[in-house]
């Protein structure tokens, strides 16, 4: 019998073209939370890869290394994303270039986030937390410190291609139920969830109707997650080095 699973967001999902005025701005601790200066574009310039693709982007040099928080905002804080808390990223050296993106596309392809989510190319989080941890062999659920469920991009154990920016974990879950999960930076609650990268990222929902081998996958190129008994089919398979070269 075919395995059945649904993936549902516990977050807002807005259609592209919703009634939010453009443009969008990068506002964060690196610019005094000013939502009037760092304007994102979707015109193929300033780090934006493809004009008119619904991904608003801006390449920004971050003065100081460390952890940072930010939001995508309308001019003067008319509205901002993520709605709950801030988005986050890390730099490892002073004057490091960071690509900020705000994706307003609603694709409906089973991956989340889907519609209005912030992300950067410095927001990698690959450790699963949630109530899937004990079923997958960890001693505790929702433990971001000692959990062992790391996704890998090494071409092994269900990961299709090494180094393509898709991080994968295969795990057997034997009890049909509804589960909640997200991925975090090890030892923190900086997460990627159903509404993108955020300190309060919304949980992913996993509904299993029977025992199954689950594919947990992060598309680190776009900041999107997937979980299913079926291997993912994604029409946006991009090599991370190619993505970086496009943005640069």
Task: Please explain how this structure is put together.
With 248 residues, the chain is mainly beta. It folds into 2 domains: 5-13 and 124-234, Sandwich (Immunoglobulin-like); 24-122, Immunoglobulin-like. Helices cover 3% and strands 37% of the residues. The chain contains 1 helix and 17 strands. It has one helix at 240-247; strands at 5-9, 24-28, 38-39, 55-62, 66-74, 80-81, 87-91, 96-103, 117-120, 127-130, 166-173, 178-184, 191-193, 196-198, 204-208, 212-219, 224-228. Strands 1, 10, 12, 13, 14 and 15 form a 6-stranded antiparallel sheet that branches. Strands 2, 3, 5, 6 and 7 form a 5-stranded antiparallel sheet that branches. A hairpin with a 2-residue loop joins strand 13 (191-193) and strand 14. It is globular. The model is unreliable at 1-19 and 235-248 (pLDDT under 50).
Tally of distinct domains: 2
The biggest beta sheet is recorded as:
6 strands, antiparallel
Q: Which consecutive residue ranges, at least 5 long each, have pLDDT under 50?
A: 1-19, 235-248
How many strands appear in the DSSP assignment? 17
- Alpha-beta content class: mainly beta
Question: What best-fitting shape do the alpha-carbon axes yield?
Answer: globular
Query: Approximately how much helix is present in the residues?
Result: under 10%
C-alpha termini separation: 47 Å
CATH overall fold name of the largest domain: Immunoglobulin-like
CATH class of the largest domain: Mainly Beta
